[in-house]
Structures are given as structure tokens and as C-alpha cells.
């Protein structure tokens, strides 16, 4: 079973006012088959964690390690990360002019599997996955992310996850901007992939509402650039009623 290990990760960005440390020692282990939720206030560094693992050039790892089965993820190119079995939903946030969803998915699958999927079975696979996500078949011919609505972007992420079958998936704010129906369909997609037992998922979110549809095995509270507390699903219930205040004031300005 694949294991993603993040150890004492410190990450900085360059700002107009100099170097700013955003991640201040993140420790986290995600195993294939597990579902983890990272929850925290806006600005606590959740997306920075996702971008850093994805290898976004803006984020400089100043110390710490990220490994997948002992292999140094931070030394891998973005392609190598995908081939190693990592799916990072924010990896392709940009529009890809002239490349259809269908071609994009097949190219990605080819890169990951090491050979092109047979066209006939592939077309069927894509169609079935799109049907279960209640996506319009015409969507497959649209250009990647071009004019996608928030909901379409998220469905496209889950479609990729269903088809590419990663070992570790990091989904950042998959629930934001979704109406109730889309949230349910996207959650069902995540749950289907989860039921295979083949994927370890890191679900990053600000709101607890997606956790009504997806019950995580572990919940981590993220505050001020690190994990402040870890627990089971009951921690999400506590956050829903009490919010993040206890974590943002602790040792902060009020101390
Ligand atoms: P979250 O996803 O938890 O809302 P982010 O990781 O987006 O938090 O941001 C954490 C902090 O780092 C914020 O104060 C944000 O302004 C800052 N930050 C993130 N990315 C950059 C960047 N590229 N340049 C400057 N500051 C950044
Ligand atoms: Mg440290
Ligand atoms: Mg964010």
C-alpha cells in the first residue's frame, strides 16, 4: 500500500515585503485506502500545502520532506508525480486551448499507465464515468477548463480521479462553489473511488458541509501553517459547532 509522508515541511513564498514563511512544520501521513480531511480557516496555508506537494514553482520548500513510499516527491517533475500515482487536483487549473477533455484524459491515462488505453474500451470507460457523474456527453469535446463553471471544473477533477485511478489524491476545496446537487454528485464520485480501497485521499476544505457526504477516517485542523489537532470524524462535528476560533486565538494576539 502506497504511503505519502510529509515531514516537518516548511514552505515560504516571496512577497513584495520579502520572504514569508507559510508552512511552519507540517507532519502528515496518508496511506492508500485512507480518507483524511484537512480543515482550517482561510489563510491558514491549506492551499499552500497542496501546491507545495504538487510542485508549484512559487512555493519554496525551505526544510522538511515529502515522500511517496520513500521516494522523494519534491525531486520529481510534475509528470513523474503523476506517474508515481499522485493526483493533485490543482495541477491543471489552467485552460488548455485546443485540447478536448476526451483527448486530455487519454493523454493523461497514457502517461500514467505507460501505454495508450485501447480506444474502444477507453471511450466506453469515459462515457460510463461521465454518466455516473451526470455530465453532459458533449462535455468530453469541450476544451479543458475553457469557460468551465465552478461545478464543471470540480466534476472534471473527479472524472480525472475516477479514470486515472491514482494512489494518492489531493483535492483542494472540491466543495467550494457547488450547489447541493453538484456537491452530492462530486461526493458520490469521491466515495466510489474510495470504495475501491485503492486511493488515499486528502480532502482540503474550509467548510464542514462536504463531510456530511464523505465521512473521513481522520480529520486534521490546520491553523497558522501547521496541523494544530488531529482526530476522527467527531472532530469535524466539533468544528461545525465551535468553529476555528479556539485554534486561531491560541497562542495568538490574545495571549
Ligand atoms: P488557505 O488555502 O488555507 O486559505 P493559502 O495557502 O491560500 O491559505 O494562503 C496562506 C497564506 O499565504 C495567506 O496569508 C496568503 O495570502 C499567503 N500566500 C499564499 N500564496 C501566496 C503567494 N503566492 N504569494 C504571497 N502570499 C501567498
Ligand atoms: Mg519545524
Ligand atoms: Mg485555499
Automatic annotation (TrEMBL):
The keyword ATP-binding applies. It comes from the Bacteria. One of its GO terms (molecular function) is ATP hydrolysis activity. Keywords: ATP-binding, Nucleotide-binding. Residues 4-249 form the ABC transporter domain. Pfam families: ABC_tran. Belongs to the ABC transporter superfamily. Ycf16 family. NCBIfam families: sufC. PANTHER family: ABC TRANSPORTER I FAMILY MEMBER 6, CHLOROPLASTIC. This is Fe-S cluster assembly ATPase SufC. It comes from Streptomyces beijiangensis. The lineage of its organism: Bacteria, Bacillati, Actinomycetota, Actinomycetes, Kitasatosporales. The gene is sufC.
